[in-house]
UniProtKB/TrEMBL annotation:
Protein name per its UniProtKB record: Nitrite reductase (NAD(P)H) small subunit
UniProt cross-references to NCBIfam families, sorted A to Z: nirD_assim_sml (TIGR02378)
Naturally occurring in which organism (per UniProt): Streptomyces xinghaiensis
Gene Ontology terms for molecular function: 2 iron, 2 sulfur cluster binding; nitrite reductase [NAD(P)H] activity
UniProt domain Rieske-like [2Fe-2S]: residue ranges: 35-131
PANTHER family, A to Z: NITRITE REDUCTASE (NADH) SMALL SUBUNIT, PTHR40562
Gene: nirD
Alphabetically ordered keywords of this record: Nitrate assimilation, Oxidoreductase
Annotated GO biological process: nitrate assimilation
Length: 133
């Protein structure tokens, strides 16, 4: 499992103000009714995901797509029980261009915006509201 380098959640240091190199921003997820910082965008690679630990002990998979959008869904593959979705391949559907991640194990695709499995309508993973702080 690949964990984001910043796993201290709410204790992340803010970027240094007034410096030319302070371009990284935090990625925050809405869990319950609170925002939680989970990683810095500098720790994300376009087209790849990272696993982050949430305050309640669950894992989320955070993705940065090549267009610069950030998504977060649950990291547990519901078909196998393995925490691997952060290691999946991301792409876009051919019909409407929806972003998805394909599980690295059995290759089921999950919509990154909704968590819905695109290959089995009865299955979904949690999807998290994301903001950059």
């Amino acid at each position: 499992m690949t964990l984001a380098p910043e796993t201290t959640l709410d204790r992340l240091a803010p970027a240094a103000a007034g410096t030319a190199t302070a371009t990284a921003t935090r990625v925050e997820l809405l869990v319950g009714n609170r925002w939680h910082a989970v990683c810095d965008t500098a720790g994300l690679t376009p087209g790849r995901g990272v696993a982050v630990l949430l305050p309640d002990g669950r894992q989320a998979a955070v993705f940065l797509d090549r267009a610069g959008a950030v998504y977060a869904i649950g990291n547990q593959d519901p078909f196998t029980g393995a925490y691997v979705l952060s290691r999946g391949l991301i792409g876009r559907t051919g019909r409407d261009g929806r972003p998805f991640v394909a599980s690295p194990l059995l290759k089921q695709r999950f919509d990154l915006a909704t968590g819905q499995c695109l290959d089995d309508a009865s299955v979904a993973v949690p999807a998290y509201t994301v903001r950059r702080g």
